[in-house]
């Protein structure tokens, strides 16, 4: 064999000048001037990651003995396999195996070696680079959220990933590993910083009281899976073998001074640093916190903001360097194929394109699949374990061929067996975790998330919540001693011990509590009041006593839910001789009478003589303090009336000074019960949601376009739609969906039209609106366009058709299974039957003011309803508003469902019991309800009531029902406000469409959808696969109720088909406003007869709320 003195002092086989030039250009072989410490820092950067922070958690799943053993075995085995690879780098005289796959080809053959090594190496290196992209972006996002206070704007994760990728675009142009040694040194220092923060802060915190080192799982199966999970976490902490040969290739080598000596020296230094990082964090973290340690050790520490920011800065710097260490072998692999196999010339332009493309691909995957780390944990088991644990041993047996049954032979086979077991078991436990996460985590949690190498929990720190203690009393010690021990077990110390124990003993005796019950209640009180420190002070005892009293009262109320209390005041309200006194009584202005009532033994609502008995918490409902709501001056002032003349003609106008006896008879006389039929019951309660796929979303939008196209053709006014993207000099008619060409707001220059797959293959075309005299468009709107497309790139519109004739009756008969008649005696007539008389009060939440949870607006609304005696009370959420300050800050001491039933449902039961069987109530949920599913369309409430007469009914959101044959459609999503913010329009001054609110409300009927906007607003959890038919409006309703934060209004919308000799069909659009806005609010009172709203009364509840039509 001919051997010559090669480049950089290494002896190589005879090569042509072209091959030598290629070797000097490729990143792995271009520079062989590295020092031994280069390899040390490269190996530390490649191996030590933020996964070190999860090692204490792994120890908690293993225990002291197995945990220490596995840590040591993993360190020893991986160091041994790394030594093998360093030795095999120059195993053949005169030849260097500069790349992992070259060593594989020598061991297994040219083709088989490539198939064995390359796929595994690509999975590891590309997968780790994608995880680094995500981790770098999330770390920068966390830094931004901590450092930048309000009013900073939230920035999406994808933008931070692109910022991180921008740095990689620049660094990727560095020629080889030796040129990034400075970056590698910095990244290695950052790696050491993780562990230093983790174990030093743990030592500072000290061993926690009552630390427990037992196994976390209570069953053998759970312990087994925990063991496998911990084994995988420890094993995946060692991933630097995939680049070790490439690192060694940068070190100069001669027969006298082979590269393995400085490389091995660097490896020993690197593994010493690994031991310094891994072992203290794992052992000290477990020692301090035991099995209560979190899956990220930083979560278990007291976390000041500066520590979180510093940790995330270290993460960003570290992953910048680590990305390049794992990317360099991929650059070499790609460029080798292009230059040697495809005969590209080794130029700077080729390097710029290939490396930029690689960074762009990893960035794109990171943006599209931000939970890639979880998937890598599943698929990576097939690649991490072989390349690190047993593939070097197999190649050693194939190349060195040690004597059978020798020590080397035994060691290698042991490593192979352990590695194969890890390769098989790691994906199994990851698969189990995927299934568990899918069933246990909420929709905001990615189903596949399971502690990747740089887990998301490094970026998000949670506060632990208290959990109830064991409720079984202990009689070993005296009661006081037992209380003291329970406090100490929970981490509390007693300030004035003797006095506090005496009071606590009294509490236990009076309220029949065990010591553990008492301390559990204290923990709830402690967290809700946000007390500081761990000292229980005597000054806290009075507030704690009030907390115990409130819990006792709640328990009594729950046990006797049907107990209602009435007093003489119920009759006094009806027999009141003065109108002013009656109004004061109903509206609840604080007075001397209230003080007199509060002194009685009955439980009344705050600040009112309400005729409705209260069944809520005495502490909340018997409060006699004056709130801002009770101090408002203008109440129920009529400001707007629709069809006032018709109202007078029908004799429905209530006299201002009614005769006392007539007024009493009117209020006492029972009203007629209205019939009720729920026409829509989808989605059903308890359904699984947020499982919609991209395919489901596409099909839903495609079906909308097709239905509109079919309706246009069926009307006989339009021809079959044409492809809008085809060039045509003549005018054509096309149907498609309006969309925007970017993420910003729609405007005249960014408007696109997306056709259906059937007519245009789903392609977009730019829409020119310059020639249109009038239009009103928004994203997601399906329209018909008449125009021509001379170039094939822009459709010049001459006419926009945004509505389709919609009939009064549904085109498709609703199946009986989807209709729910709420009265056995009620038989629904033909849909064309004329509506009867309907008296209805409408109100939309919130139902309490922002300064308290007393639900005063609801109380007064019910008092108002008892005077007006409507047939139907339509209440629309939110009922337990997630945006309420007390709920948002977590200061309530009851569950959201308890608040709903105690404050809302209980009062409604009192109302219908007082009003009699004629009264009906309908509840419609909102996505802002903290006590209900966060999804749209939204299933109906499931309330626990004894209601044999079906007087309280729950409706879906959106929902449709018939009351006395009056069809009412309602939706609690603020679609009016959202469409108002997205709509673009050009309306002539003399057009009837100048009424903006009426025009926006008409869009829903024209689009035949309760939510035609797409993409949806960021705060709307739209699920298009859950119940697509629930969003459809198949026929014109008599009344369309759309509560919104915008100014309340009532609009008559002329719609539908015109018939000879008959007026156009009408729909009444009502925005009842919010029952509670600031310290006031609005509601609506409607009387409906023969499809005409005859009376809508408005009243002003808030003195300084100007410019609105308040409905009452």
TrEMBL record:
Q: In which broad location class does this protein mainly occur, judging by the first location in its UniProt entry?
A: membrane
Q: From which domain of life does this come?
A: Eukaryota
Please list where the region (Disordered) is annotated: 583-625
Subcellular localization, per the record? Cell membrane; Nucleus
Positions with biased composition (Polar residues): 607-617
GO molecular function terms attached to this record: amino acid transmembrane transporter activity; DNA binding
**UniProt keyword annotations, A-Z:** Amino-acid transport, Cell membrane, DNA replication, Membrane, Nucleus, Transmembrane, Transmembrane helix, Transport
Q: Name one GO cellular component term.
A: alpha DNA polymerase:primase complex
Q: Domain DNA polymerase alpha/delta/epsilon subunit B: where?
A: 841-1051
Q: Where is the DNA polymerase alpha subunit B OB domain?
A: 722-801
**Pfam assignment, any one:** DNA_pol_E_B
Q: How does it sit in the membrane?
A: Multi-pass membrane protein
Q: Can you supply a Gene Ontology BP term from the record?
A: DNA replication initiation
The portions of this protein that span the membrane are: 36-58, 64-83, 180-201, 267-289, 309-331, 352-372, 378-398, 410-429
* Domain DNA polymerase alpha subunit B N-terminal: from-to ranges: 481-528
User: Locate the Amino acid transporter transmembrane domain: which residues?
Assistant: 33-427
Keyword Glycosyltransferase in the entry? The reply is no
**Entry similarity comment:** Belongs to the DNA polymerase alpha subunit B family. Belongs to the amino acid/polyamine transporter 2 family. Amino acid/auxin permease (AAAP) (TC 2.A.18.2) subfamily.
Name recorded for this polypeptide: DNA polymerase alpha subunit B
Query: Which source organism does the UniProt entry give?
Result: Thalictrum thalictroides (Rue-anemone)
The uppermost taxa in this organism's lineage are: Eukaryota, Viridiplantae, Streptophyta, Embryophyta, Tracheophyta
């Amino acid at each position: 064999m001919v051997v010559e003195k090669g480049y950089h002092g290494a002896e190589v086989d005879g090569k042509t000048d072209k091959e030598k030039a290629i070797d000097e250009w490729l990143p792995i072989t271009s520079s062989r001037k590295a020092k031994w410490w280069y390899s040390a820092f490269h190996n530390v950067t490649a191996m030590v990651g933020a996964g070190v922070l999860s090692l204490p958690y792994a120890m908690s799943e293993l225990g002291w003995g197995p945990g220490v053993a596995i840590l040591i075995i993993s360190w020893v085995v991986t160091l041994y396999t790394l030594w093998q690879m360093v030795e095999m780098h120059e195993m053949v005289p005169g030849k260097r195996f500069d790349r992992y796959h070259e060593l594989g080809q020598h061991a297994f053959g040219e083709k088989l070696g490539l198939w064995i090594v390359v796929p595994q190496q690509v999975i590891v290196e590309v997968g780790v680079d994608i995880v680094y992209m995500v981790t770098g972006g999330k770390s920068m996002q966390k830094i931004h959220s901590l450092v930048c206070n309000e009013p900073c704007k939230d920035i999406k994760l994808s933008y931070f990933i692109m910022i991180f990728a921008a740095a990689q675009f620049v660094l990727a142009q560095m020629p080889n590993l030796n040129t990034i040694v400075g970056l590698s040194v910095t990244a290695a220092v950052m790696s050491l910083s993780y562990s230093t923060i983790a174990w030093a802060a743990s030592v500072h915190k000290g061993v926690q009281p009552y630390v427990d080192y037992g196994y976390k799982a209570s069953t053998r199966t759970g312990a087994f899976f925990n063991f496998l999970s911990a084994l995988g976490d420890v094993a995946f902490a060692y991933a630097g073998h995939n680049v070790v040969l490439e690192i060694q290739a940068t070190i100069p080598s001669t027969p006298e001074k082979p590269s393995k000596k400085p490389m091995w020296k660097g490896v020993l230094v690197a593994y010493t640093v690994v031991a310094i990082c891994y072992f203290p964090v794992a052992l000290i973290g477990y020692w301090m916190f035991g099995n209560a340690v979190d899956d990220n050790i930083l979560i278990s520490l007291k976390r000041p903001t500066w520590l979180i920011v510093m940790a995330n800065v270290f993460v960003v710097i570290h992953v910048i360097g680590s990305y390049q260490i794992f990317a360099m072998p991929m650059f070499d692999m790609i460029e080798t194929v292009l230059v040697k196999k495809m005969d590209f010339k080794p130029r700077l332009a080729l390097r710029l394109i290939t490396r930029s493309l690689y960074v762009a691909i990893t960035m794109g995957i990171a943006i599209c699949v931000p939970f890639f780390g979880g998937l890598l944990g599943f698929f990576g088991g097939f690649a991490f374990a072989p390349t690190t644990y047993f593939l070097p041993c197999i190649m050693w047996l194939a190349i060195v061929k040690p004597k059978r049954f020798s020590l080397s032979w035994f060691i290698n086979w042991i490593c192979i067996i352990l590695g194969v077991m890890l390769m098989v078991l790691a994906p199994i436990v990851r698969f189990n975790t995927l299934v568990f996460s899918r069933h246990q985590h909420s929709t905001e949690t990615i189903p596949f998330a399971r502690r990747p190498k740089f887990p998301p929990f490094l970026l998000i720190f949670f506060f632990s919540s208290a959990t109830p203690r064991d409720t079984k009393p202990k009689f070993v010690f005296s009661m006081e001693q037992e209380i003291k021990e329970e406090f100490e077990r929970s981490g509390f110390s007693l300030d004035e011990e003797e006095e506090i124990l005496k009071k606590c003993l009294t509490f236990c005796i009076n309220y029949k509590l065990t010591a553990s019950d008492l301390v559990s209640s204290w923990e709830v009180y402690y967290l809700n009041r946000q007390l500081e420190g761990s000292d229980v002070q005597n000054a806290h005892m009075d507030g704690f006593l009030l907390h115990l009293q409130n819990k006792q009262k709640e328990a009594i109320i729950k046990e006797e839910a049907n107990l209602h209390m009435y007093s003489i005041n119920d009759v006094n309200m009806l027999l009141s001789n003065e109108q002013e006194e009656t109004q004061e009584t109903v509206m609840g202005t604080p007075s001397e009478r209230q003080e007199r009532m509060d002194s009685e033994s009955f439980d009344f609502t705050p600040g009112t003589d309400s005729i409705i008995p209260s069944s809520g918490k005495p502490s909340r409902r018997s409060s006699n303090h004056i709130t801002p709501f009770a101090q408002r001056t203008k109440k129920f002032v009529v400001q707007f009336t629709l069809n006032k003349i018709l109202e007078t003609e029908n004799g429905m106008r209530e006299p201002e000074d009614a005769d006392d006896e007539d007024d009493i008879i009117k209020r006492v006389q029972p009203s007629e019960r209205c019939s009720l039929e729920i026409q829509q019951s989808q989605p059903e309660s308890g359904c699984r949601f947020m499982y919609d796929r991209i395919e489901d979303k596409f099909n839903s939008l495609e079906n909308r376009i097709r239905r509109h196209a079919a309706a246009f053709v069926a009307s006989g006014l339009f021809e079959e739609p044409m492809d809008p993207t085809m060039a045509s000099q003549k005018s054509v008619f096309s149907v498609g969906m309006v969309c925007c060409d970017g993420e910003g707001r729609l405007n005249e220059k960014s408007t696109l039209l997306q056709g259906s797959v059937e007519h245009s293959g789903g392609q977009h075309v730019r829409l020119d609106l310059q020639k249109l005299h009038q239009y009103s468009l928004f994203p997601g709107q399906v329209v018909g366009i008449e125009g021509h497309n001379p170039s094939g790139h822009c459709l010049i519109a001459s006419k926009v058709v945004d509505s389709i004739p919609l009939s009064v009756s549904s085109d498709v008969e609703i199946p009986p299974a989807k209709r729910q008649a709420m009265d056995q005696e009620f038989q629904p007539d033909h849909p064309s039957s004329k509506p009867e008389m309907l008296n209805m009060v409408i109100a939309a939440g919130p139902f309490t003011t922002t300064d308290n949870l007393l639900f005063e607006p609801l109380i007064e609304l019910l008092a108002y309803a008892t005077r007006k005696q409507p047939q139907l009370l339509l209440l629309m959420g939110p009922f337990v508003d997630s945006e309420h300050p007390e709920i948002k800050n977590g200061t309530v001491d009851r569950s959201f469902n308890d608040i709903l039933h105690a404050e809302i449902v209980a009062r409604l039961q009192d109302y219908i019991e007082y009003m009699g069987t004629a009264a009906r109530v309908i509840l419609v949920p909102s996505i802002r309800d903290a006590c209900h599913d966060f999804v749209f369309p939204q299933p109906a409430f499931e309330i626990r009531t004894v209601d044999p007469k079906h007087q309280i009914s729950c409706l879906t959101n959106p929902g449709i029902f018939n009351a006395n044959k009056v069809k009412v459609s309602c939706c609690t999503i603020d679609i009016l406000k959202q469409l108002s913010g997205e709509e673009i329009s050009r309306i002539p001054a003399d057009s009837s469409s100048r009424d903006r609110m009426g025009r926006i409300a008409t869009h829903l009927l024209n689009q035949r959808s309760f939510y035609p906007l797409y993409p949806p607003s960021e705060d709307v959890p739209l699920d298009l696969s859950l119940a697509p038919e629930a969003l459809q409006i198949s026929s014109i309703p008599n009344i369309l109720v759309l509560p919104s934060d915008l100014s309340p209004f009532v609009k008559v919308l002329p719609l539908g088909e015109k018939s000879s000799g008959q007026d156009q069909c009408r729909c009444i659009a009502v925005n009842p406003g919010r029952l509670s806005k600031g310290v006031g609010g609005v509601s609506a009172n409607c009387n409906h007869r023969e499809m005409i709203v005859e009376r809508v009364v408005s009243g002003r509840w808030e003195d300084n709320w100007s410019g609105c039509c308040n409905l009452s």
